[in-house]
Design a protein that fits this description.
Pfam families: YbbR (PF07949). It is built from 6 helices and 32 strands. By secondary structure, the protein is mostly beta strands.
Length: 420
């Protein structure tokens, strides 16, 4: 069957038959309406149809140069009824007009009917709405400056700001009724600057008109668009970095030095803010967590006014010291107030020297000269025999307080003999 339909002569025959049938239907339908004798066909009005067209534009007939009209709908609904062929062809072609005729009417408010032209009389026409209330006003024009509004200023590329915006032309002519012209509060164009990182020109930006309540007004604007030039700026300043710390170091650890690898950072922000910016602080280093010397990456505490920083972190070299022990050997024990004729000998320790252990941070221990350490025992007023006497350590006045000393013996046992 499919192969039979693919033959060219079959397709031509079918097309011819369909054309003849369509001609017969149209001719028959035409005869129904042209029959002046009122003859009714036996199958009645089965060839009639009704179709509705939405959004049919409405024209206004008035001197547009002199008057402004409000209240006329932009579109209406039109329903057609009549023969199938006539309704169908009219709906498909839409070669008719719907309008309100305001010629000859004075300024003011009027109730007027919607009319049509270009539709054959044999069709029944229904327009919805059938009539409208319109207001006719004298036309007025006024020149206004165009202001600019940059949308998404806070979303320009980091570090940049909108320095200036200008329009070409800077003024537009607005035309409408006098009452509408008097309501105009601002004439504005909008440009989205999201992601901008360089100056540029945007062509054909629409101009919009608003009243003092922010309502957009439907007016004629000449020209309806403007070219907008956006100038971008990238202000920056290099400022010192200040290191902040918090909490205390663990016991037995001393912070010897902290050194910033970068002393300054370049900050991008508004010029007005940069003028008063003197430093950028780091987020505090928690000293309680430092146990070794090394490099620490610290975030900068960037204020909200900062759009961008050349670096958001800085490396800090931290040097710490831990308590160490250092032995000073064979420090001589000196006798104080030794009386003549007495001979003093050491029982414990068995020599007149002993060791001293120093505990402290290396930098503090380096300040101590072992030769400046003295060990003393007081023997004045002691008679013959063995005695236990305390050993006193004498240190220089400038010994750091953090340094602690431990004596090999806290006291000595000595034997005193009187000369005969």
């Amino acid at each position: 069957m499919n192969s039979w339909l693919e033959k060219p002569w079959v397709i031509r025959v079918v097309a011819l038959v369909l054309s003849v049938l369509l001609f017969v239907v149209v001719a028959f339908d035409q005869n129904v309406y042209d029959n002046d004798d009122g003859f009714e066909l036996p199958f009645g009005d089965t060839t009639n149809d009704t179709q509705t067209m939405e959004d049919v534009p409405v024209q206004t007939q008035i001197d547009q140069e002199k008057y402004v009209v409000s209240g006329v709908p932009e579109t209406v609904k039109v329903s057609l009824s009549g023969s199938v062929s006539l309704v169908t062809s009219t709906v498909l072609q839409r070669n008719f007009d719907v309008y309100v005729d305001l010629e000859g009417l004075e300024p003011g408010t009027h109730q007027v009917e919607l009319e049509y032209s270009g539709i054959q009389d044999r069709l029944n026409v229904y327009i919805e709405p059938q009539e409208v209330e319109v207001t006719i006003e004298e036309r007025a024009s006024k020149e206004f400056n165009v202001t600019m509004d940059a949308v998404n200023r806070d979303k320009v590329e980091a570090g940049y700001e909108v320095a200036n915006i200008t329009t070409d032309p800077g003024k537009v002519l607005v035309t409408s009724s006098k009452s509408i012209i008097d309501k105009i509060a601002i004439v504005k164009a909008f440009v989205d600057v999201e992601g901008f990182n360089e100056s540029q020109t945007i062509d054909n930006v629409p101009v919009k008109v608003y009243d003092n309540q922010g309502n957009q007004l439907n007016v004629k604007i000449d020209p309806p668009t403007v070219d907008v030039e956006v100038e971008m700026n990238n202000p920056s300043k290099s400022v010192p970095i200040t290191l902040e710390t918090e909490n205390e170091l663990p016991d037995g650890i001393k912070l010897e030095q902290t050194e910033l690898e970068n002393k300054q950072v370049q900050i991008f922000a508004a010029e007005s803010y940069l003028e008063g910016l003197e430093e950028i602080k780091t987020k505090p280093i928690d000293l309680s967590k430092i146990t070794e010397s090394g490099s620490i990456e610290v975030e900068l505490a960037l204020p909200s006014e900062v759009r961008k920083a050349a670096s958001e972190t800085v490396n800090v070299n931290v040097s710490i010291e831990k308590i160490e022990e250092q032995d000073v050997n064979d420090v001589a024990i000196q006798l104080e107030s030794e009386e003549s004729g007495q001979t003093v000998s050491f029982v414990e320790p068995d020599t007149n020297a002993m060791n001293i252990t120093m505990r402290g941070y290396p930098s503090d221990l380096e300040q101590i000269n072992p030769e400046d350490l003295q060990l003393l025992i007081e023997v004045g007023g002691l008679g013959s025999g063995e005695h236990e006497v305390p050993i006193e350590l004498v240190t220089p006045d400038d010994v750091p307080e953090s340094v602690q000393f431990e004596l090999q013996f806290e006291q000595a046992t000595i034997n005193i003999e009187e000369a005969e």
